[in-house]
């Protein structure tokens, strides 16, 4: 049923009555009567809207109507009364993915360049000299628009060269494609908020959500941009900004290809080009001895570059820089400036930042698991991802290329890659599995011992298929309960946090915070090993948490959650992206959106109805 309303009048009256804290949202924290009379301008009939959730829905629908700049508009009461699960999922499917989609071309370039991280007076776009088509396209565009400048990256560059770009940082070009009579940017989907670029491992999880929502072309476009980055920048980047050229992200390219070929019979030429690039990345990024490949035969995260990472806000490293500022008798801001610009160099501090940059390459920025130690660790996460690469490559060669695949100067069979995977599984079980603790721990290959930090990454081998049935059972029955809170699993256990000083900075990837990728990889691992009921429980917990916060807080879908309080109100390190908006959330947050759609695809109908009723997990499990 639709009713006619005076849009601006009702909008003002609703906010005046219900938004008592004046944050441009209607939430459970407001103290209004939580009851609003909505009058149909046509029939003069009164419609009573009650409760935080329904009033917030009304505000959101009015915010959309206001964009028409009309005096009168129709409010659809079925949208006001829509069940929470159906509303959240619909908005992700119909609105959020589109709002998060970007292109780097004439149409979309300025949306990318003019964001809060652009510090140059004239925004800069860097294009690799290898990309002849891109160089010409963007130089022509520069001459036409004259509101940005193009920088050409040499075909080969050093870490020192990349550091020189820090005085003039900019966005990095991505792939172009021929559409009709013009070139257009190949689309990508950003996480949201201040993350207005293509992020490495976020993009895989986003791709999973896109595929579920029947947007396969966008998932394939992500793969195209992965390929472009490997060919033109040498790796899948942390994100496509100039100061990220020194580091990659968790390797999930092959997993995205597997998800794509599950949906359709692939064009063999398309698949061949991507499989070649996956193998190129595997060999040139991950398997170079002395870099990301260590003496154990297992891998580590190891970013290139020197000194403090460029992207952090002033003050982020005060606890680290303070003693060094005293050592050089400088105010901390002056020391930070000189150290960032490399006019002052300290070898001990440089070593700290080798680990810090590598930690950021891991995607877990930050966690006490990796602080000042990351580059020394054969981490469980990266080796789980690379095992999956090896198994995926073996599968694709066998399934689509008659068990014979030419890449560069090598002719591969699936057995070649199964052999690599078997070696990695053996080494991980030898060095990382801890039978007594029933967990996988990172292995410190420098000091030749396990680093016994209890992190959610212990479940990544379950996702990758590394575990024996015995190990899976111990992970599920003994390890998992130590991570479970009402709303899912925490990034680490509370016990691991207890090993650090009480006044130590709270790290956002540790206890008590919960993240979508940890949940999604756990769910898939549980399903892979036949723990169906436990998977249903864990999916319910996370979707209940997302739904509860959206119902209570005007549709908010944030980057992460505090699982101790079952809240999006997180006060650690970088805050919480996805919580700052006026009246209506237009994009949610990329991988949380994806986790919601993935979870709903697996969850049984009875549990979906319990989520709509916001039944606490403790009442069900």
Automatic annotation (TrEMBL):
Gene3D superfamilies: 1.50.10.10
Catalysis performed (reactions): alpha,alpha-trehalose + H2O = alpha-D-glucose + beta-D-glucose
Domain named Neutral trehalase Ca2+ binding: residues: 12-37
Keyword Hydrolase: yes
BP-aspect Gene Ontology terms: trehalose catabolic process
MF (Gene Ontology): alpha,alpha-trehalase activity; calcium ion binding
PANTHER family noted in UniProt: CYTOSOLIC NEUTRAL TREHALASE-RELATED, TREHALASE
Protein name: Alpha,alpha-trehalase
Organism: Flavobacterium degerlachei
């Amino acid at each position: 049923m639709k009713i006619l309303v005076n849009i601006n009048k009702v909008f003002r009256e609703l906010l005046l009555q219900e938004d008592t804290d004046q944050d441009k949202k209607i939430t459970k924290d407001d103290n209004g009567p939580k009851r609003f009379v909505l009058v149909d301008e046509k029939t003069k009939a009164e419609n009573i809207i009650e409760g935080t959730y329904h009033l917030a829905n009304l505000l959101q629908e009015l915010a959309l109507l206001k964009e028409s700049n009309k005096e009168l508009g129709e409010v659809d009461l079925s949208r006001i009364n829509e069940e929470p699960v159906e509303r959240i999922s619909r908005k992700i499917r119909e609105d959020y993915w589109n709002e998060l989609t970007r292109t780097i071309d004439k149409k979309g370039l300025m949306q990318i360049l003019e964001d809060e991280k652009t510090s140059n007076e004239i925004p800069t776009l860097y294009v690799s000299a290898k990309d002849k088509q891109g160089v010409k396209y963007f130089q022509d565009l520069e001459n036409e628009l004259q509101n940005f400048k193009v920088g050409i990256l040499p075909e080969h560059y050093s870490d020192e060269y990349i550091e020189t770009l820090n005085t003039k940082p900019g966005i990095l070009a991505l792939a172009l494609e021929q559409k009709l009579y013009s070139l257009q940017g190949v689309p990508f989907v950003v996480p949201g908020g201040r993350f207005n670029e293509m992020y490495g491992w976020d993009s895989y999880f986003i791709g999973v959500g896109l595929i579920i929502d029947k947007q396969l072309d966008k998932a394939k476009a992500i793969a195209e941009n992965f390929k472009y980055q490997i060919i033109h920048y040498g790796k899948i980047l942390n994100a496509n900004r100039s100061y990220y050229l020194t580091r990659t992200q968790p390797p999930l390219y092959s997993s995205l290809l597997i998800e794509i070929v599950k949906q359709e019979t692939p064009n063999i030429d398309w698949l061949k080009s991507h499989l070649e690039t996956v193998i190129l990345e595997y060999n040139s990024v991950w398997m170079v001895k002395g870099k990301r490949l260590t003496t154990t035969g297992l891998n580590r995260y190891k970013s290139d570059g020197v000194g403090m990472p460029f992207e952090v806000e002033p003050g982020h490293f005060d606890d680290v820089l303070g003693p060094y500022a005293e050592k050089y008798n400088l105010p901390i801001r002056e020391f930070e400036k000189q150290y960032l610009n490399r006019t002052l160099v300290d070898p001990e501090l440089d070593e700290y930042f080798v680990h810090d940059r590598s930690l950021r390459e891991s995607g877990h920025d930050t966690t006490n698991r990796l602080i000042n130690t990351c580059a020394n660790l054969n981490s469980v996460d990266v080796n789980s991802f690379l095992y999956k690469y090896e198994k995926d490559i073996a599968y694709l060669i066998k399934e689509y290329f008659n068990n014979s695949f030419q890449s560069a100067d090598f002719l591969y069979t699936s057995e070649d890659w199964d052999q690599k995977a078997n070696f990695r599984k053996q080494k991980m079980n030898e060095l990382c599995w801890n039978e007594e603790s029933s967990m996988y721990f990172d292995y410190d290959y420098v000091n030749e011992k396990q680093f016994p930090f209890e992190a959610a990454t212990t479940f990544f081998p379950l996702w990758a298929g590394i575990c024996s049935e015995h190990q899976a059972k111990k992970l599920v029955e003994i390890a998992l309960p130590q991570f479970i809170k009402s709303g899912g699993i925490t990034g680490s256990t509370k016990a691991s946090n207890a090993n650090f000083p009480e006044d130590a900075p709270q790290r956002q990837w540790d206890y008590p915070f919960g993240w979508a990728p940890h949940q999604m990889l756990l769910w898939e691992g549980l399903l892979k090993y036949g723990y169906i009921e436990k998977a249903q429980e864990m999916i319910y917990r996370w979707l209940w948490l997302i739904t509860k916060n959206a119902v209570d807080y005007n549709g908010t879908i944030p980057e992460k959650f505090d699982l101790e309080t079952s809240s999006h109100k997180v006060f650690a390190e970088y805050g919480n992206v996805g919580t700052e908006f006026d009246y209506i959330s237009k994009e949610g947050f990329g991988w949380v959106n994806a986790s919601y759609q993935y979870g709903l695809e697996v969850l049984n109908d009875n549990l979906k109805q319990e989520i709509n009723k916001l039944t606490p997990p403790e009442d069900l499990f």
